[in-house]
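Sample intake sheet
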Amino acid sequence: MTLHLGILQTDSVLDGLQERFGDYPEMFGALFTAEDPSLQITTYDVQQALPRSLDCDAYLITGCKLSVYDDLPWIRELADFVANAIEAKKKILGICFGHQLIAHFFGGLVTPAPVGWAVGVQTSDLVQKLPWMGGGEPVPDQLHLVSSHKDQVQRLPDGAQVYASSDFCPISGFTLGDEVLTIQGHPELNTQYSKALMAVRRELLGEAVYQAGIERLPTPTDAQLFTRWMLAFVRDKGSEQKPVDQVLLNQEQR
């Protein structure tokens, strides 16, 4: 059966970078169709209009340069749509802004991170190894993804479980029941795009953050691996959504 994924596009790649790298839906499309060429993808520009019905099997919320706590009608309306989708047992994938939106509107807390910007390739420890991470291949102890964010989830919604964490970003990824999977990093972004974006934002980031981000770019990312995990999560019916190998977070990360 063909899987239908709805991309809830919350922002666009900067005009000066689109010709070289494309826009976010194209980036996600390349990732997902490399794993499942039969996948049906529909994109919705949610700053203009939300889907009128819940026709997709799953919805992915993209990253955005705005903050989830910005008081904008379309952000609140998107949160309402996501709540309805979860109620209808649709799968939700939250990427960066999407990760934060789920936390912010479902009982958690998102604020500017005291540690500042995360750029370049960031590494998270997998503090839970869950069934949808398997798929016949070894599950690593760490996950490496391009990151670009100044906000972080500070408190989880009730019932959410962290599966990815780091000292820099303790809540790097979480699940909420059988319907929601989030990640703070960007599987859709490659290191060439990260380098170009950091160059545009160099003054905003500050020289120390910029140089640290550039130094991390040679680290290979796990973008395709995480894409396989997202597809496995979407296809999972939730009958065995239990940890197969759990490492307890330390007290500071709880």
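Comment: The mean pLDDT is 92. The first helix runs from residue 15 to 21.
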